[in-house]
Design a protein that fits this description.
Elements: H1 2-35, H2 45-59, E1 61-62, H3 66-79, E2 86-94, E3 99-110, H4 112-125, E4 129-137, E5 146-157, E6 167-172
Parallel strand pairs: 1-5
Antiparallel strand pairs: 2-3, 2-6, 3-5, 4-5
Helix pairs in contact: 3-4
């Protein structure tokens, strides 16, 4: 039994000493890290907001090019196997922001995949467009075709529009 105790002492004590040295080294390293001053760089929230505002204005489309953008939307619909025959338009001017919005509402009929492809392509090709609303309706559960009603907005740079306001029109093709 005495021999077993000595053997245990010869094996356990060196292991405990090695473990103690490792813990002491970790403690010393932690003390050194805690002594060093922490350098925290905080971006000014104002500069971030200013950057976002600048990015918004740089992304605006040109009001003088809105007819080309409308043609592009119709072309995207055609390339997505969708018929876009009618759209309602509403033009507004945001006096505080100094930009024009050109809102379009229109029905589409086609497969879900085609409508989704149209939405994705529209947002990728026209970075100043937003998809504001989309509603789906299916006549029958086994019908692969959907009816969708979309509302999109084009954000345009235009400082020449009168502050009075809002005009609305309907366009049938």
């Amino acid at each position: 039994m005495f021999a077993l105790g000595i053997a245990g002492w010869l094996v356990v004590i060196p292991h405990l000493r090695a473990e103690s040295k490792i813990q002491q080294a970790v403690l010393n390293h932690t003390k050194i890290i805690l002594r060093e001053p922490v350098q925290v760089t905080i971006a000014s929230p104002r500069s971030t907001a200013d950057d976002r505002l600048l990015n918004f204005y740089q992304t605006l489309g040109q009001s003088s090019q809105k007819e080309q953008q409308i043609k592009a939307i119709f072309a995207i619909a055609g390339n997505s196997n969708l018929d876009l025959n009618m759209a309602e338009y509403k033009v507004t001017f945001n006096q505080n922001g100094g930009y024009q919005t050109y809102q379009m509402s229109f029905p589409l009929k086609g497969s879900y995949a085609d409508i989704r492809r149209f939405c994705e392509r529209l947002l990728l090709d026209i970075p100043f467009a937003s998809l504001d609303e989309i509603n789906f309706k299916r006549e029958a559960i086994n019908n692969p075709s959907l009816e969708a009603k979309l509302r999109i907005t084009l954000y345009l740079s235009d400082y020449s529009m009168p502050a009075s306001g809002v005009t609305a029109s309907e366009h049938n093709l």
